[in-house]
Amino acid sequence: MKARQLLLAAAMIAAPSAAWAQSSITAVVQIGNSNPAVINQSNQLNFAGVFQIGGSPSATVTQTGGKNFTGVLQFGGNTTTGVGQFGMMNVVNIGQVGRTTNASVTQFGGINSASVSQFGH
User: Fold this and answer.
1) Residue 3, pLDDT above cutoff 80
2) Edge-to-edge strands, sheet with 100-108
3) What are phi and psi of 3, to 5 degrees?
4) What is the pLDDT of residues 21-54, one digit of tens each?
């Protein structure tokens, strides 16, 4: 966990100020039954965060840019997440708790890191 935080901090420090002008930051919080979240980002620096509780949450994130970071946390009956990242640096962390848990990660780039934690009951 600390390694990911250090990686994120290093990426933020290394990003030139011009990259901040070409950045996307998206946060989605959903509580309720079966709310899908769809995020598409295509800038030099992309941050996406999704937090879902209830029903059958689903999240789809597509990021195209130099540096891409995604975090998804889901609690529900049937949880589904799909993340596609295409850039020089790609980082994704997914946490799911539900009767069924489904996660799909696709990463193309020089530095790729993915972490998936799933707990079914």
Assistant:
1) no
2) 36-41, 58-64, 78-86, 100-108
3) -65, -40
4) 689 999 999 999 878 999 999 999 999 999 999 9
Point out which residues pair with 42 in neighbouring strands. none
Comparing 70 with 120, the larger pLDDT belongs to: 70
Residue 109 identity: G
Residue labelled with tokens 């933020």: 12
Q: Which of 63, 66, 56, 70 is nearest to 115 (CA)?
A: 70
Say what the pLDDT of residue 121 is.
76
Q: What angle do CA 71, 74, 78 make, to 5 degrees?
A: 135
Contacts 24+ apart (CB under 8 A), 63-68: 63/39, 63/87, 63/90, 65/24, 65/41, 66/19, 67/11, 67/15, 67/19, 68/41, 68/109
DSSP one-letter code for 22: T
Q: Could you tell me the sign of the dihedral formed by the alpha carbons of 85, 48, 41, 89, in that order?
A: negative
Three-class DSSP category at 36:
strand
